[in-house]
Amino acid sequence: MSNFPVHQQQLDASGLACPLPLLKTKMALKTMASGEVLWVTATDSGSWRDIRKFTDMTANELLQAAEVDGSYQFWIKKGA
Question: Is residue 3 part of a domain?
C-alpha cells in the first residue's frame, strides 16, 4: 500500500448506501485545511461515480482512486 498518497484524515464509509458516502466525504473535507488529503473507503458502487463527479465539479482534486477487495478507495486533496 506504499504506492498510495499520504493522507491526513481517513473516512470509512463502508456499508453506507448512496448518497451517504458522498455526503460524509463532503462533511469530512469541510473540517480539513486546504492541501490536506482525505482517504475515503466505501463499498457502495455508486460512490465510484459520485465521488469522481464531485471532485470534477469542485476545487478538490482526486489524487487517486482504486478498487481493492470489493471496496472503493479515494484519495482526495482538499482544494482552496
Answer: no
Residue 36 C-alpha cell reads as 490536506
Q: Which residues face 64 on adjacent strands?
A: 75
Active site residue 51: no
What's the CATH code of the domain at 60? Answer: 3.30.110.40
- 34: phi then psi, degrees, rounded to nearest 5: -55, 135
- The pLDDT tens digits of the residues spanning 27-71 come to 999 999 999 999 999 999 999 999 999 999 999 999 999 999 999
Point out the catalytic residue in the list 18, 20, 32, 62. 18
CA proximity to 11, closest of 30, 47, 39: 39
pTM, entire model: 0.93
